[in-house]
Every structure is written in C-alpha cells, then in structure tokens.
Amino acid sequence: MSALEFFVRLVDSLNEYIGRFVSWFTLATVIICFVVVVLRYALGIGILWLQELYVWSHAIVFMVGAGYTMLHGGHVRVDIFYDRQSVRKKAWTDIFGTIVFLLPWLAVVAYFALAFFQASYRVGESSPQGGGMPALYVLKGLILVFCFLVGLQGLAMIGRSILILKGHTGFLPAPEEFTKR
Fold first, then answer.
1. DSSP single-letter state for residue 90
2. Handedness of CA 15, 20, 22, 26 (dihedral sign)
3. CA torsion sign, 117 to 120 to 124 to 130?
4. Residues ≥6 apart with Cβ < 8 Å to 144
5. Cα dist. 30→36, 61, 134 in Å?
6. Which string of DSSP letters, residue by residue, matches 11-68?
7. I need a labelling partner for 174 at 20 to 30 A (CA). Which of 53, 82, 134, 152 fits?
C-alpha cells in the first residue's frame, strides 16, 4: 500500500469513527432539550446551563461531524454538471474544487477562529448569562476542530482523486443504489 493510499484510508477511518461517535450527541441534544422543556413548562424550573448544554451538544454534532459528512458526500454541491461527469472528470473537479475553494476558505476561517479562540481563552470567557456554561472558549475551539477535520478530509479527497486518476479501482465511488419506483 502506498503512502497516499494509507493516508486516504487513515483520514477516512478517523472521520468515520469521529462521526459515528459524535452522532450520539444528537441523542444527547434531544434528551437534554426534553428535560429542559419538562423542567421549565411542567415544573416551572429554569436551569440556564442545561439550556446552553443542548446548544453545545448540537454544535459538537455539526462542527466535529463535518468531516464525516464530507466523507459521505453530505455537503451541498452544485450537481448540475457534476452528476453527469465521468469518474475521471469528477476526480479532476474534486481536486480543483478542494484546492481552489475548500482549502483557502478553511485557511481563512482557521486564521480568524484562532484569534477568536485565543482571546476567549485568555480571559477565561464563560457564558454571558449568570449560571450559564463555563469555558466558552471550548465551544469556540470547535471551529478549529472543524477546520482541521474538514481540511484533512479535503486532502483525502484530493488523494482519492489522484488514486482514481492513476487507475486504482479500490478508490472508485460505490455504484449508486437504484431506488424502486
């Protein structure tokens, strides 16, 4: 196995594992939200940190699970031309799109997110609401995690595309399943 094949498989496995793990935070979000509603409207008890906790768990799903979503083709793509392209043209499109659009965008987001995170960390920022969640910088740090995991998956996409262009059939996309009409 070449280093490129190893890298692609490693990144895919990492994002697969992380995505499956953080998917459980979706259940946590629903349960926490349910508890908040019951406490608030049935018992008249409001717990601010609990309300903020389900926002945090929801953010974890989206920010940390974004690499998993990219791995499985779940992000928005302009499919007007892409769907009709051959596998080789799709590979070239993925390389071009990742290098020209995705990676520069992630670099800009990471650059500003780092300053955003550092400023929050320096002051030990917590929720602006009394009784809210502490360590708000952890939530802001998820932006950097997002950039890292999506960036890695973007590099793996480039690697997979190169392998497809070199004729490695093990990296071809799985045939689409036909739906019954």
1. H
2. positive
3. negative
4. 110, 113, 114, 117
5. 10, 12, 21
6. HHHHHHHHHHHHTHHHHHHHHHHHHHHIIIIIS----HHHHHHHHHHHHHHHHHTHHH
7. 152
Question: pLDDT digit of tens for each residue in the chain (181 aa)?
Answer: 699 999 999 999 999 999 999 999 999 999 999 999 999 999 999 888 999 998 999 999 999 999 999 998 887 776 677 778 888 998 999 999 999 999 999 999 999 999 999 999 999 998 888 888 888 999 999 999 999 999 999 999 999 999 999 988 777 665 543 333 3
The Cα 124–Cα 105 span in angstroms is 28
**pTM for the model:** 0.87
